[in-house]
Amino acid sequence: MLLSNQKRLKIQEIIRRISLDKEVSLKERIYIEKYAKHSSTISLWLKKANSIRRHGIQSESNINGLLQSMGIDGLDKENHFDPKKDDISDWFGGSPDWIKRS
Fold first, then answer.
1. What is the mean pLDDT of the chain?
2. In b/e form, how buried is each residue of 46-61, taking b as 16+ CB within 10 angstroms?
3. Which domain holds residue 18?
4. Domains in the chain, number
């Protein structure tokens, strides 16, 4: 999906406000979700922004920073993989498509 420079900047501005926990209208949120469904890049930007909003920016020198940079849920204790209870394929279910295909 090719975006005009104007649309990309608008999307990045909305995502920046999400990461800073600033006000984002429902109309803007729907706009972002529409593009995130069709673009893995925008989906990743949105996942990172939500992670930063919830947990702050994580240091890239630890596992939390790696998870955040890849847009993978896992910073919340309830999202951690437990091999006794969880199936690895289900655990990666919310990850980007390129990880699911691996």
1. 78
2. bbbbebbeeeeebeee
3. 5-101
4. 1
